[in-house]
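Handoff note, outgoing to incoming analyst
You'll be picking up this chain. Sequence as last confirmed:
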Amino acid sequence: MNESSAAPCSPRVAASAAFLCFAPVIVSFAVAPGARWPEYPGLAFHLAIFAVVPSLRAPEWARMAGYGWLFLDVTTGVLALNHVPTPSPIRCGSAPTSSPASGS
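Most recent structure output, in case you need it:
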């Protein structure tokens, strides 16, 4: 077995850990909409997914794309936890603008 492609743990264990971290986030949408505490298990979910990516039967470019997505998503989660304003350079999309009608 090639050591560079070995998964750090069982894919089943990593996927289960990711699910257990993500379940409270889904429940929070109904129980406490707009709460900040779900960001923490959501961040743990993304970190657990880092252990799932190497075990995927996919081309190398697809695994690298997965790592890239995880890196950007974890970065935006950390920015949200630290109250960085929404139109930061790392966020995807354009900054919100006010419409001309609302300015009058």
